[in-house]
Amino acid sequence: MAYIGADSVKAIRNALKAEFPEIKFSVTLDNHSSVMVSIMESPYNLINEFTVDDGTINEGYQNINHYYTDRYAYKAIYDKIWDIVKSAPYDAGTMDEPWFDKSDIQSDYFHTAYYFTLRVGKWNKAYVWNQDKWGKVSKKNFLAYCHKYCMAWLDDDGRITWLENPYNKEKNAMKNLLKIADERMGAVA
User: I need a surface site. Which of 13, 42, 57, 108 has the fewest CB within 10 A?
Assistant: First the structure.
């Protein structure tokens, strides 16, 4: 039977905060069987990857299917969150064994350590895209973000001279990103 305690949820919350200081999470326990992780605020434009034409956008709220992250632009972030949710309780010593899923859908048998729900925003509180949080992004996450989601133009010395985000054509956002890259790495012309 799926079970997770409050101390394990606290371990997940702390691990997410350590890995992603730029993201504000809401990590809650649901019926002692599920962990619900909501991304409430970040510098990443997470809502813009959903369009009204898809019928999937709900005014700043969206469930993320963590089993099929290939369909999302921010796959790397969602995958890392899922890895942390699976490993943090065991790593912190709050669970006796690592996360497992021994379910067999063909025989209608479900047996997992605990369930997980990932959301961007909540039904009663919309996700906030806050570009001021770029200052909190670690160098590792910043470089991963630029590598995955931006087209970086490099000079002969390998320094970033221009970043272009295909998901956001707003000029002020790109100037802000370049300014932060300059402050973080001292490598932007």
Answer: 108
